[in-house]
Design goal:
The protein is an alpha/beta fold and about 375 residues long. The chain has three domains: about 110 residues, no CATH class; about 180 residues, P-loop containing nucleotide triphosphate hydrolases (Rossmann fold), CATH 3.40.50; about 70 residues. It has 17 helices and twelve strands. The protein has a five-stranded parallel β-sheet. Strands 7-8-11-6-12 form a five-stranded parallel β-sheet, covered by helices on one side. This is AAA family ATPase.
Length: about 375
């Protein structure tokens, strides 16, 4: 064995690191199983490379994970290089125990920081992307500037977005992530049943899905925990360390969340309601509470114009002859008061356009 690289980060960056020709950990485990069961041997070419992806460890038993070196030993003479993406803590310790430090290299993905360009992008384009929430931008910019200047000293910035559904909370998180670069990491904790959520957060078997494993795979340093207030109450203590120190760990994995922006959302109307729902220990770990206001009539009209324009661009020339742009716009602006939020407006407009098109299609065929 000449080189072992332990890489922690997303798949798309790991793929840039590995050689063009390699054997996967899944293949090697399957060949070892065949040898053990049927006595037949598999020979690898010399100077081979072995690649293990994050998902690969799910295919090995607990015993094999704890004695991972035994897997490498089977083809030790043929394998020159090993590349492992997001190995468990057990695998990492096993490798460091049995192999020389000189051949082990540990790499961590470098996430896009809050740069000057990102700060200017948020300032310039926020109002075009998030309608009716200019005050949110004014509260976000100091937080981003603090990270840009390193005044947070690497600590995560923990923010609560609260207010009614469909007024821009999730879209704002996406916009921040887009401005920094990388797809938003989003988890809706309310989707888990109580025990499922605890297992997901605290970890069980290395083969099971877990929050830490998903965090290691993330592409962005912006993390959205949707409907945080609806998560199982006993799960909140799992976030104490990450909110305080930027470290999240379970029995199988450990992830450093340095300089992350962690955004939680709630549909409650006031910080007092959120405090009662979450409890003081987690409530007072938030750096900022930012309220999203209900949409004004002016904002609703702006959204109507934006949505109709976007949907109209998707139509082909023939469809544009059927859907009358100005007529559609006037219809919705006249009814703007009755609309609730962005999702409500977009849903109705899309349905209306599709209805016009399908009726025309049926009448002419």
């Amino acid at each position: 064995m000449k080189k072992i690289i332990l890489y922690y980060g997303p798949r798309f960056e790991f793929d840039k690191l590995i050689p063009e020709s390699f054997f996967t950990l899944d293949q090697v485990v399957r060949w070892i199983d065949i040898q053990n069961r049927f006595g037949s041997s598999v020979n690898l070419d010399n100077n081979s490379s072995l690649v293990g992806y994050s998902m690969s460890y799910s295919g090995i038993t607990e015993g094999a994970e704890q004695n991972f070196v035994s897997i490498l030993d089977v083809f030790n003479d043929a394998i020159d290089e090993v590349y492992l993406q997001n190995p468990t803590e057990g695998i990492r310790k096993e490798i460091e125990r049995f192999f020389s430090k000189e051949i082990i290299e540990i790499r961590h993905h470098s996430y896009a920081p809050v740069s000057k360009d990102a700060l200017l992008e948020v300032n310039s384009n926020f109002d075009n992307r998030i309608i009716g929430q200019n005050h949110v931008k004014e509260q976000l910019l100091p937080i981003l500037y603090n990270i840009y200047k390193g005044k947070n000293e690497g600590k995560p910035s923990i923010i609560m977005f609260y207010g009614n559904s469909g007024v821009g909370k999730t879209e704002t998180a996406k916009f921040i992530s887009d401005s920094l670069g990388g797809n938003l990491f989003r988890k809706q904790l309310s989707m888990f049943q109580n025990n499922e959520l605890l297992d997901y957060l605290f970890g069980t078997k290395h083969s099971a899905s877990s929050f830490t494993k998903d965090l290691l795979e993330r592409e962005s340093n912006v993390i959205l925990l949707d409907e945080f207030d609806k998560a199982y109450f006993s799960s909140y203590n799992a976030f104490y360390q990450v909110f305080d120190e930027g470290i999240f760990e379970d029995k199988n994995y450990k992830v450093n969340l340095k300089n992350t922006i962690i955004i939680c959302t709630s549909n409650y109307k006031t910080p007092e309601e959120i405090r009662r729902a979450l409890g003081d220990p987690i409530f007072f770990r938030f750096d900022r509470m930012i309220k999203f206001e209900d949409l004004t009539l002016e904002s609703k009209i702006e959204i109507i114009n934006q949505v109709i324009s976007e949907e109209y661009k998707k139509l082909n020339p023939d469809e544009r002859q059927v859907v009358h742009y100005e007529e559609l716009k006037s219809k919705y602006i006249e009814q703007a008061k009755r609309f609730v939020n962005y999702r409500h407006i977009k849903f109705l407009i899309q349905n209306d356009i599709n209805g016009i098109l399908v009726r025309y299609f049926l009448e002419n065929h």
